[in-house]
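Pipeline run #58 for the internal structure catalog. This entry was flagged by the ingest filter as a single-chain record with no existing model, so it goes straight to prediction. Upstream metadata was stripped on purpose; only the residue string is passed forward. Reviewer on rotation: M.T. Logging verbosity set to normal.
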Amino acid sequence: MEKRVLLIDMYGVILRESKGNFIPYTLAHFPAAEHGRLLRAIREEGLFTRAQNGEISSEEFLTRLGYEDPARAMEDYLEHWLTLDEGFKLFAERWGRTCPQGSLVLLSNDVAEWSAYLLELHGLSGYFRGAVVSGQVHMRKPQREIFQYTLKRLGCAAKESTFVDNSASNLRAARELGIDTVHFNRDNEDYEGRQVKDFRELVDVLLCGTEDEYAQR
């Protein structure tokens, strides 16, 4: 693999849920009479976006929604409403063997505390040589600034990197900067570039061939 930096998204790639499940999770935990208020807070008032931008903490975000135990709500949601794609670990192990001098870097829009919890929960930290999370850096995809920040932080040029994401708009923003892109297409979304539907195909696209681990799945 010629590209020495691989940037990879969390939601919709490493986790199977491309949009997350936080809104249905929240609606399931509050009475129907509260749903209008909750949706306004999340969508119109932008509380979720503010949490993902690091403007408010996870605790403040969940407390303002009405959760009496925000820490427990965070844990419950992340543990029971999101699903790790186990194919990621096989891919990451193969990538590490094939590209020992390269870097696998998480690039995710997420609440800072949630990202840290997910990495610990699924034992993912050891696969990454770095992480750029919107809640920590106060910028988010598809803003071009987060890609520029990431490249500068990693000390690499756009042409030396590949970005894997499930969102076509995020990929287009990266491509405008000269970053190579691969669309992890869980949602049958149109994209005018390379596409894969799972980690088996990502191995084929980036590492030229599958391994026995995938054949056995």
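catalog note: The longest strand covers residues 103-108.
catalog note: Residues 87-98 form the longest helix (12 residues).
status: ready for reviewer M.T.
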